């Protein structure tokens, strides 16, 4: 019971810390007067370092096996990075502390995820009962921290984040952290995942990650430019987060009715529409309304991506396949979206940025739809993938 509460508390504080920090980072860059190019570089640095830290620290955890000591060190490093941001106004030191935070923060959730899944044993389908507390933490923290920064200034967001990270440390220390087996062998065998179907799949999730990064990062600057308060900026994040709930709950139904590649293409097309809609209204209420499309885009891409990665992966590479999917979408795609968005935002402004990226996402979804159809008709990939998913319910239960 105590360990279950600790896991729920960890997810709540971890995702609340993300909700407190992410909008504040972009606003901090704007307040310091950085150019669009520098904002784009800093925005791209975060997912790249998150990806590097997740893979690097995962290998280290498998090598040394001292997961509890690693968890403590990562928490302290992430907290130091956040506190350093409150003392930095120059570009160089700020980039250094962003990198330190991301390198240490990224591996925390995978370490706890593996512990929770191992503790659940044959009941891995109950994982969502713990992870849902992350959605609750995110949804509550975003408007709360926004209101605090509105009253006390932007630095309070970083102090709140540091406090939440220390709370994460306490919760994580109560979990039965154990050494995993075979992680290095699976990572070294990742080259077996290279195939034409994997190429199309990764192209889809990379494009989705890029477009989502433009939505997630630059909508806050756009809202600020429209005159939104910091409380409203935090509210926009809560609206997006809460919109995930119905699609997360209905994920199994969506996968039973449609093949995962079709869902990915459809979500990418809807992402394009979402981006095109942002500048249409030119007002804060309109942008908040468009944020409701987040669940139909991000959640569907994530659910379909997890399912399709599992279906395509060889039996001994299931975990590696999930890591590759996450790295390409959140790491490479997120970094590319931050960089491209920053360059466009600084040169052509927010409306043109959303329009250009949205049009590109729509066009690419059309091309990838044609490719997916060719693959499905020529090789039977899509029908076989659906049959395989229906025939392996036990493996599907193991996915978060």
UniProtKB/TrEMBL annotation:
Disordered: annotated segments: 381-400
Domain Major facilitator superfamily (MFS) profile: 1-376
Subcellular location: Membrane
Biased composition (Basic and acidic residues): 383-400
Keywords attached to this entry: Membrane, Transmembrane, Transmembrane helix
Short name of any one Pfam family annotated for the protein: MFS_1_like
Cellular component terms (Gene Ontology): membrane
Listed transmembrane segments: 12-30, 42-63, 70-90, 96-120, 132-150, 156-177, 198-220, 232-255, 262-280, 292-312, 324-345, 351-372
A molecular function (GO) term: transmembrane transporter activity
Principal cellular location given in the protein's record: membrane
Membrane topology field: Multi-pass membrane protein
Family: Belongs to the major facilitator superfamily. MFSD6 family.
This protein's name: Major facilitator superfamily MFS_1
Organism name: Truepera radiovictrix (strain DSM 17093 / CIP 108686 / LMG 22925 / RQ-24)
């Amino acid at each position: 019971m105590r360990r279950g509460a600790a896991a729920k508390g960890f997810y709540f504080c971890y995702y609340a810390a993300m909700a407190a920090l992410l909008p504040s980072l972009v606003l901090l860059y704007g307040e310091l007067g950085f150019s669009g190019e520098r904002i784009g570089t800093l925005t791209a640095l975060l997912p790249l370092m998150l990806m590097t830290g997740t893979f690097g620290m995962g290998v280290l955890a498998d090598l040394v096996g001292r997961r509890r000591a690693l968890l403590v060190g990562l928490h302290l490093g992430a907290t130091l990075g956040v506190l350093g941001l409150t003392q930095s106004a120059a570009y160089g030191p700020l980039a250094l502390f962003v990198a330190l935070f991301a390198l240490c923060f990224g591996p925390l959730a995978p370490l706890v995820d593996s512990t929770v899944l191992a503790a659940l044993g044959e009941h891995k389908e109950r994982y969502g009962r713990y992870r849902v507390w992350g959605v609750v933490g995110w949804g509550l923290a975003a408007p709360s921290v926004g209101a605090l920064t509105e009253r006390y200034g932007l630095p309070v967001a970083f102090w709140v984040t540091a406090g939440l990270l220390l709370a994460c440390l306490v919760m994580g220390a109560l979990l039965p952290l154990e050494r995993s087996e075979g992680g290095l062998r699976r990572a070294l065998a990742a080259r077996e995942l290279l195939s034409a179907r994997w190429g199309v799949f990764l192209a889809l999730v990379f494009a989705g990650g890029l477009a989502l990064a433009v939505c997630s990062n630059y909508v806050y600057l756009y809202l600020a430019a429209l005159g939104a308060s910091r409380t409203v900026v935090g509210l926009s994040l809560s609206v997006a987060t809460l919109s995930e709930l119905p699609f997360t709950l209905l994920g199994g139904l969506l996968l039973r009715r449609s093949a995962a590649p079709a869902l990915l293409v459809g979500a990418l097309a809807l992402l394009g529409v979402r981006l095109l809609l942002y500048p249409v209204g030119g007002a804060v209420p309109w942008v908040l309304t468009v944020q409701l499309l987040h669940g139909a885009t991000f959640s569907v891409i994530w659910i379909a991506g997890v399912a399709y990665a599992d279906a395509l992966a060889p039996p001994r590479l299931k975990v590696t396949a999930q890591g590759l999917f996450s790295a390409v979408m959140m790491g490479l795609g997120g970094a590319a979206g931050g960089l491209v968005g920053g360059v466009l935002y600084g040169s052509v402004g927010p409306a043109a940025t959303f329009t250009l990226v949205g049009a590109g996402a729509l066009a690419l979804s059309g091309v990838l739809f044609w490719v997916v159809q060719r693959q499905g008709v020529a090789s039977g990939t899509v029908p076989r993938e659906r049959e395989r998913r229906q025939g392996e319910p036990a493996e599907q239960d193991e996915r978060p």
